[in-house]
Amino acid sequence: MEKLVIRGGKRLEGTIPVSGAKNAALPLMCAPLLTEEPVTLENLPRLADINTLADLLNHMGVAITIAAGQGGRIRGRSLTFSAAEINDTVAPYDFVRKMRASIIVLGPLVARAGEAIVSLPGGCAIGNRPIDLHLKALAALGAEIDLEEGYVRASAPRGLTGGLIRFPFASVGATENALMAATLAKGTTTIENAAREPEIVDLAKCLNAMGAKITGAGHETITIEGVDRLHGCTHTVMPDRIEAGSYAVAALMTGGDVFLEGAVAHDMGAILDKLREAGAIVEEKADGVRVKAGAGGIKGFNIVTQPFPGFPTDMQAQFMALATVADGASIITEAIFENRFMHVPELCRLGADITVTGASATVRGVQKLKSAPVMATDLRASMGLALAGLVASGETTVNRLYHLDRGYERLEEKLRGVGADVDRVPG
Ligand code: EPZ
Questions:
Q1: What separation in Å is there between the alpha carbon of 130 and the centre of ligand 1?
Q2: What is the DSSP-derived secondary structure letter of residue 10?
Q3: Ligand 1 atom, smallest distance to 129 CA
Q4: How far apart are alpha carbons 113 and 238 in whole angstroms?
């Protein structure tokens, strides 16, 4: 298995182009299931998870082609999805086990085809991650839900009917499934306590470009007027705020100065605020965000992860790496997932001083981290380890690079482009 070798101590300086957002691209790739007309998505990141979902859609009958005329002008990849025929409404275990976000085909499939049979995702490294809210939302739109042999069957042979969906807490995936299903439901749907992440706003933008009638995306209450059919469109995937945030932390940790080309400051609010608190100088520009280490070094900070606009759980591990070399102590509380501290023992292998009590970790900054071989456990944890490797003395090896490839496009190339000494090596 490939691994990442990082020789630490280099100050990062220069420009990093931000890729399209994985967590926007995945639900957006499911939207074409709602129409028989072609949908073109531009600025898709080249990531393992994107390929896995493309294989699943292909398996269902979605024709996926490289979009015409994408030479040079558009960053990322442009693909055209055509779901003229859906000849299989089953999402098999072999696809879903590789990437649990495949569950997002459920809503669009039952809305368009009247039936969806999707493997239950099963457990995940960072938590149980049940899908009860997804199922409750579809049931609220009149779908019949059955669970059998590890699969969920949602059926609505006469179509879905608009209704009230009130979530007990904000779920990104359940909001995305409900939003897509409601676009073709008869009548009006109201989603209360909806997730407000920018990726949901991007999805609603694309669906409205397909002829949907959605208002309120990005707010707690979303209203959807169902329509009889949707049409094709071309949509550009938003930039990845988590990828941008990860490189912003790298700039501060290495005492550097990095311009995150294409990053949107508004989507990164809580991340940039916390970076400023930790000592960074942040400039928000029309075409990106510049992050520069301040003269005062890195200061300790406290974090509690929350749904947007709160501090994102997908940045928790990266900020924990930052806290390991801060001046003073930081307290980091993970309030979204019950098992998202897998990076702690690995950071301690690099000489970090961290104690975990329940859902909180107390990180006491140390002068210097020291290199060691470490093990990636999940996507964001592995980015936290790579960031720590950038400042550790000596050569750090991050094993199981495939975790990083799920969510970071051309990682070593982008890091090398701003002066890091990093290589991908065969296992
Ligand atoms: C999305 O996952 C992201 N994934 C995650 O990013 C991210 O961590 C998460 O939102 C929170 O921001 C994608 O967009 C593909 P949730 P999702 O439903 O939709 C509980 C990354 O690193 N819950 O908002 O699965 C759940 O267990 C990934 O890129 C239920 O209890 O997250 C969790 O504790 C990791 N029942 C909380 O809600 C449900 O039916 C939030 O989960 C659904 C969720």
A1: 9
A2: P
A3: 27
A4: 28
**227 CA from centroid of ligand 1 (Å):** 28
Q: Would you say 332 and 316 are in contact if contact means Cβ atoms under 8 Å apart?
A: yes
Token output for 142: 């009149």
Which residues, including other chains, have CB under 8 Å from residue 173's CB and lie 6 or more apart? 101, 103, 104, 131, 134
Nearest atom of ligand 1 to the alpha carbon of 173 = 19
pLDDT below 70 — which residues of the chain? 68-75
Q: Are 121 and 131 in contact (CB under 8 A)?
A: yes
Q: What pLDDT does 66 receive?
A: 83
Residue 75 has what pLDDT? Answer: 54
Residue nearest to atom 16 of ligand 1 (CA): 171
> Cα separation of 407 and 403, whole Å?
8
> How far is Cα 32 from Cα 52, in angstroms, rounded to an integer?
16
pTM reported for the whole predicted model? 0.97
Task: Name the CA radius of gyration of the chain, rounded.
Answer: 21
pLDDT value for 285: 98
Residues 165, 192: contact at Cβ < 8 Å? yes
The three state secondary structure string of 245-278 is HHHHHHHHHCCCEEEEECCCHHHHHHHHHHHHHC
Active site residue 30: no
The closest-lying atom of ligand 1 relative to the alpha carbon of residue 172 is 24
Cα 284 to ligand 1 centroid, rounded to whole Å: 28
- Give the pLDDT of residue 1: 85
